[in-house]
Design a protein that fits this description.
There is one protein chain. This protein is an alpha+beta fold. The protein folds into 5 domains: 2-90, Beta-Lactamase (2-Layer Sandwich), CATH 3.30.450; 118-269, Beta-Lactamase (2-Layer Sandwich); 295-396, 2-Layer Sandwich (Beta-Lactamase); 398-521; 528-687, Heat Shock Protein 90. It has 20 helices and 20 strands. It has helices spanning 2-6, 24-33, 65-117, 123-136, 162-170, 180-187, 200-203, 207-216, 248-293, 313-319, 323-328, 332-341, 351-359, 398-472, 474-479, 482-521, 532-550, 573-598, 631-634, 654-665; strands at 10-13, 37-45, 48-57, 141-148, 151-158, 191-193, 220-228, 231-240, 298-302, 308-311, 366-371, 377-384, 390-396, 528-530, 557-561, 569-571, 606-613, 617-624, 669-675, 679-687. A 5-stranded antiparallel β-sheet has the order 5-4-8-7-6, with helices on both faces. The protein has a 5-stranded antiparallel β-sheet with strand order 10-9-13-12-11. Strands 15-17-18-20-19 form a 5-stranded mixed β-sheet, with helices on one face. Strand 9 and strand 10 form a beta hairpin. Helix 4 (123-136) runs antiparallel to helix 9 (248-293), helix 14 packs antiparallel against helix 16 (482-521) and helix 17 crosses helix 18 (573-598). It is rod-shaped and about 230 Å long.
Length: 699
């Protein structure tokens, strides 16, 4: 054989006895088999020795070349047969492996199908996993455990021991440190115990391992951990009651099923969370829907494609949208066209123009109010959404608008009442003052009138007597020396001047007394319906002629803006004329004074008179372009004896008398507006319905 191993194909020994001196094997062949001639033919495949064909003879008779050749042929055939057998064995092994792999894959797919079809119930998954493991691994029993801090709890069992079932189901299992479960938890890898009887835990006297072998009858054991992100969540343990270690493929299969169990557990957890979230979402959605439908506002949401995505009941009711119409109103364009065609935007509104107007502002916040054809007032708020689209919020503000209108009306009425009350109070106070003042001035005027008449009469008489004295003493004065005659003439002139001053101031005092008597007498009381424009024109001409008579150089531009549609009004024309004469005279004075003070050739004194019919009252405005009234004087304009004119040029009673005539006799208003250096404007408003404020002066 050594030669064959060395590479020879044929070893032919004609006489074994002669060549076995140093070869113990040949010696044994000769002695035991009584062989004398031997022939060994190598059976090879590609230089690889597969076997040997050995033949021998008990007598010395060498084999012929032909015989050797035939044996070599048989050796070649034997090599082919051996190779065929090997190939057949390989084929069978591969077939078995493929069948096993197919079985594993089929089982894995079946378990995955169960995992997918039963995410909410893990019991069928665990049962299927144990069924496939015990079947494919030729195991007698098995358990699938879930693990938490309290220990291991079985959730699926195959062919369990009744005593073990009673023990394990009542209390979570806490394995000892030497058990396969504990080792799998520690190493986080499958633990294979080929023979429990030869295991260290059994030899060390671990009670559970002894109980497993002697009571349950387990001999070979495989434990695979269920790992989720490196943490143990359970384990699969499968057993055999006879000594038969698990193969690597079976260990890999159990590991695969362990991964599937983890997937099922995670799917179950996720499904539970999803179901809880879904239930919570459904509850929230139902609550929101109830809230949405019971909101006081109408709400409609349009998505990024401007399609009607959601709406509530109030939206339908506020806009009178039947269910059938909402089926057709799927877009914002449909909605706007529908409203326009129904007349929501007013009669004759162009639907396309309305659509363009609303869509142009679709991306911004805005709000507006719209009155529906039935009179309902809606407030509409447009709120764009970040992801596109917008929400329309409709609020029925009809009641609010009605309340606001009522509040405004009440406020206006209160303001009018307050203004009337304030006017009445001011007028009453003024009237009381004027009544008392009238009594006082009337008494004073009557008391002063007689001595004043005496002064005026005797001053005039003294002037006449002085003239007679000059005529009588003229010859005597002519005879005097020149210096004495000059002194006498000077004395006479001085007396004449003094008497003229006494007469002038007497006449002025008489005018003041007459004004005081007029002020105390009040209105003439005669009222009739007149054309106010004619009355204003007449008073304006009268005032202008009077001013020209006093000063021939007086000149002013008169502008008339009369309302030609002014309806006649019932007033006391004589008294109102006094008011106009006072206002026109003051305007003439102010404009002429500014002309004299400024000496500006471009300045043009102007007085503008405007009449207006305001319905329930008429307005007369008198505006001059004089120097204006200082702010500190404006509140005193209508007080008796207040004047801004120099001493001797005004009594201060004109505006006070005018105020009484307008407010007391006619129930109207008179106001002044002014800007220093620009203008002064008096506004007189006379009501068509007389509101006379009655005053009672204290006795």
């Amino acid at each position: 054989f050594a030669d064959l191993l060395a590479g020879k194909d044929v070893v032919h020994v004609p006489d074994l006895a002669a060549s076995c001196t140093d070869n113990k094997l040949r010696r044994a062949v000769v002695d035991l088999r009584r062989s004398r001639t031997g022939l060994n033919i190598a059976v090879r495949k590609n230089e690889e020795l597969l076997g040997v064909i050995a033949v021998g003879r008990q007598q010395v008779r060498p084999f012929s070349e032909a015989q050797i050749a035939r044996l070599k042929g048989l050796a070649a055939q034997a090599a082919i047969a051996i190779e065929n057998a090997r190939l057949l064995a390989d084929l069978r092994q591969r077939t078995n492996d493929l069948q096993e792999s197919l079985s594993y894959q089929t089982a894995t797919a079946e378990v995955l199908r169960i995992v997918t079809s039963s995410p909410h119930d893990l019991k069928p998954v665990f049962e299927a996993i144990l069924d496939r493991i015990t079947e494919l691994c030729s195991a007698d029993a098995g358990n699938l455990w879930l693990y938490d801090a309290g220990g291991f709890t079985p959730v699926a069992m195959r062919n369990p021991d009744p005593e073990a079932v009673a023990l394990l189901l009542n209390n979570p299992f806490q394995p000892g440190p030497l058990t396969a479960l504990c080792q799998a938890a520690k190493t986080k890898a499958p633990v294979h115990v080929p023979d429990i009887a030869a295991d260290d835990a059994y030899r060390a006297g671990d009670p559970f391992r002894i109980w497993t072998l002697e009571r349950v009858g387990v001999r070979s054991l495989l434990a695979a951990p269920l790992l989720k992100q490196g943490e143990m969540v359970g384990a699969i343990v499968t057993y055999r009651s006879v000594w038969q270690p698990f193969t690597d493929n079976q260990i890999a299969l159990v590991r695969t099923f362990a991964d599937q169990a983890v997937i099922a557990i995670e799917n179950g957890r996720l499904f539970k969370e999803l179901r809880e979230r879904t239930d919570e979402l459904a509850q929230r959605q139902a609550e929101l829907r109830v809230t949405f439908d019971n909101m006081a506002h109408g709400v409609a949401m349009f998505d990024s494609e401007l399609r009607l995505a959601a709406w509530n009941r109030q939206f339908q009711e506020m806009l009178d949208l039947p269910e059938a119409s909402l089926v057709d109103l799927r877009t914002y364009a449909d909605f706007i066209r529908f409203l326009a065609e129904r007349g929501e935007f007013g009669a004759g509104a162009d639907p396309e123009a309305e659509l363009q107007r609303y869509t142009a502002n679709a991306a911004r916040h805005y709000s507006f109010e719209r009155t529906r054809p039935d009179g309902t007032v809606l407030e509409i708020r447009h709120n764009p959404m970040p992801e596109g689209g917008f929400v329309l919020i409709y609020s029925d503000i009809t009641a609010r608008k009605r309340a606001e209108a009522e509040i405004r009306a009440a406020r206006d009425a209160a303001e009018r009442a307050l203004a009337e009350l304030q006017t009445a109070q001011a007028s009453l106070l003024h009237a009381q003052k004027m009544a008392a003042l009238g009594q006082l001035t009337a008494g004073i005027a009557h008391e002063i009138k007689n001595p004043l008449n005496f002064v005026n009469n005797f001053s005039n008489l003294s002037v006449e007597l002085l003239d007679e004295f000059k005529e009588t003493t003229a010859p005597a004065l002519a005879a005097l020396e020149e210096d004495k005659r000059a002194d006498a003439d000077e004395l006479i002139e001085m007396l004449t001047g003094n008497l003229e001053k006494i007469a002038e101031h007497g006449r002025r005092a008489d005018g003041i007394v007459k004004s005081m008597l007029e002020h105390s007498r009040g209105s003439s009381g005669e009222r009739r319906e007149i054309d106010l424009n004619d009355l204003v024109e007449e008073a304006l001409n009268l005032a202008y002629d009077g001013a020209r008579a006093q000063d021939p150089n007086f000149n002013i531009t008169l502008e008339r803006n009369f309302d030609r549609n002014l309806v006649p009004i019932e007033i006391a024309p004589q008294d109102i004329t006094r008011v106009f004469l006072n206002l026109f005279g003051n305007g003439f004075y102010a404009a002429n004074k500014r002309r004299k003070e400024t000496n500006n050739p471009n300045y043009k004194p102007t007085l503008t008179v405007t009449t207006s019919d305001l319905g329930g009252e008429v307005e007369i405005r008198v505006r001059d372009n004089g120097g204006g009234i200082a702010p500190e004087h404006r509140n005193k304009l209508f007080q008796p004896f207040f004047t801004t004119k120099p001493t001797g040029e005004g009594t201060g009673l004109g505006l006070s008398i005018s105020y009484d005539i307008v407010t007391q006799q006619h129930g109207g208003r008179i106001e002044a507006a002014s800007e220093v250096g620009a203008f002064t404007e008096f506004s007189v408003r006379l009501p068509r319905v007389r509101h006379v404020i009655t005053t009672h002066a204290a006795a």
